[in-house]
Amino acid sequence: MPTYEHTATYAAPVEQVWDWYNSPGAFRRIMPEWEGIAPIEAGALVNGATTRFKVSLGPVKMMWVARHYDVVSGEVFNDVMEKGPFGKWDHEHRFIGVDSQSSQIRDTVQWKLPFHPLTFWSAPFTVKGRMNQMFAYRTLRVQNDLKRISQFADQPRHKILVSGSTGLIGLQLCAFLSAAGHHITRLVRPTTVLPPDAKNDNVIRWNDQTGEILEGDLNGFDTVIHLAGAGIGDKRWSKKRKELVVNSRIPPTANLATLLSKLDKPPTNFLCGSAIGYYGNRKDEVLTEDSTPGDNFLAEFCQNWEAAAQPAVDAGIRTVWLRTGLVLTPMGGVLKQLLLPTQLGGGGPVGGGRQYYSWISLDDQIYAMHFLMMTSSCKGAYNLTSPEPVQQKSFAKTLGKVMLRPWFIPVPGFAIRTLFGEMGKALVLDGQRVTPHRLLESGYEFQHTDLTDCFRQCLGKQRL
Q1: pLDDT reading at 237 higher than 90
Q2: How does pLDDT run across 336-375, given as a tens digit for each residue?
Q3: Residue 359: enclosing H or E segment and its boundaries?
Q4: What gap in Å lies between CA 431 and CA 285, rounded to an integer?
Q5: Domain assignment present for 18
Q6: Which candidate, 309, 325, 344, places its Cα nearest to that of 390?
Q7: If residue 52 lies in a helix (H) or strand (E), which one and from where to where?
Q8: Residue 295: which domain range?
Q9: How far is 451 from 74, CA to CA, in rounded Å?
Q10: Considering the entire predicted model, what is its pTM?
């Protein structure tokens, strides 16, 4: 039977690495971004617990069910596939203490393809490369998570309330914060459907348009993180869509900030979403948090969005506005939308390609938010973008090279305006050259400053 082996080293004691793996957020954190995996149930590291998820095999989603067995706390756990795409999959995770400050995980997988006597020859193309990339990604993700957690190991864990926890950023943020030992509660509307692996999480229900708390109590949280709102770039901007974008953010932010300001036990920290659309279309002007705002729809909307949090500021709650750029992950957002055109060879310069894209990796988005939450001296607006914004033509060229596809076929600006209207102009043809001046000044160290490295990691194209 084929056997795959992989050893990873971590700059953390074995107990800390085990605790990370045994956290509710660990499973979602280690799943490669490019695999399209949908967690259903994340089993704890105890005998008989099951982990279930859906995995993509081309256009087909298949359920994978694994059962834990022979678990020895702090030392080893095994999982065996009971249902899934392989003929056999039996995986041992062995935790090895190297010394008091470092450890290893030795993964040993015994596997077979379906109809293995007939299909084994395809393994170098269908299995081994995918496994190499998966374990490389997993190793780096755990190493980085442990490093970021250790930076604030001397501080107490927070009780955190998160709105927008089912969104692209919110899902990974809650998973990371949970793996870091914080206690998560989700602020949701009555119609919110939690992902299956979070169905038993603590929730507070509210009417975001009126501010009425329907279930639970806002008192006693250390930090509130407010990310909820309709997707700005999900659909063409009709009048109705623009109203939805505005009404899903500004009234809820004002309502939440007002509620927090009147609590008997208010939070110490309030992190509130915003966007680099605040600056409007500024071409090649270098923009920092001190730059003046723009004057288009997005800029005016972001100004009003940030102003809606003022009641929290007035109440003495440390408030941070997260002016987020283009978050890069194949799980959603702009990169997901670009993958198919690039795969088909249509990922060239758009509208001339000179407009700047201020991007940030999903890892840095999560780590920066955690850093701002844990650093009490940080308040006010922070640009969450990489220190190295790039012109769109460079962005397209880099993505094409990583995906081994041509990047020179241009897309004229009028085509974008015709297809997407005002939204296309604001999000694709306009640009902002935004730098994270205050974030760097505060001491945050970026995981990804190079766009190629970011694409390679999140797309499973790392050079091993």
Answers
A1: no
A2: 888 988 898 888 898 889 999 999 999 999 999 999 999 9
A3: strand 359-361
A4: 10
A5: yes
A6: 325
A7: strand 50-57
A8: 159-458
A9: 37
A10: 0.95
Q: Could you give phi then psi for residue 401, rounded to 5 degrees? A: -65, -45
CA atoms within 13 A on the CB side of 110: 6
Print the SS3 string covering 165-202: CCCHHHHHHHHHHHHCCCEEEEEECCCCCCCHHHCCCE
Instruction: Please report which helix (H) or strand (E) contains residue 270, including its range.
Output: strand 269-275
- Do 312 and 428 sit in the same domain of this protein? yes
For residues 32 and 179, state if they share a domain: no
Asked whether residue 67 falls in the same domain as residue 164, the answer is: no
Q: What mean pLDDT is predicted for residues 133-142?
A: 96
User: Which helix (H) or strand (E) element contains residue 47?
Assistant: none
Q: What is the pLDDT of residues 307-345, one digit of tens each?
A: 999 999 999 999 999 999 999 999 998 898 889 888 988
Sole residue written with tokens 């949908």: 38
The helix (H) or strand (E) run that includes residue 313 is helix 310-314
Please choose, from the candidates 267, 56, 258, the residue with its C-alpha nearest in 3D space to the C-alpha of residue 162. Answer: 267
Are residues 271 and 369 in contact, defined by beta-carbon separation less than 8 angstroms? yes
Q: Which tokens hold the place of 449?
A: 């400053």
216 and 342 both lie in a single domain: yes
Looking up tokens 């076929």 gives: 409
- For every residue of 398-443, DSSP letters joined together read HHHHHTT------B-HHHHHHHHHHHHIIIIIS--EE--HHHHHTT
- Total number of domains in the chain: 2
CATH assignment of the domain containing 49:
3.30.530.20
Could you write out the DSSP letters of every residue in 225-254? EE-----TTSS---HHHHHHHHHTTHHHHH
Phi, psi angle pair for 414, to nearest 5°: -65, -30
Q: What is the per-residue pLDDT for 223?
A: 98
Residue 134 lies in a domain: no
Distance CA 211, CA 209 (A): 6
Same domain? For 18 and 163 the reply is no
275 with 421, same domain? yes
46-53 long-range contacts, Cβ below 8 Å, gap at least 24? Answer: 46/71, 47/71, 50/82, 51/27, 51/79, 53/27
Taking residue 238's Cβ as centre, other Cβ atoms within 10 Å add up to: 12
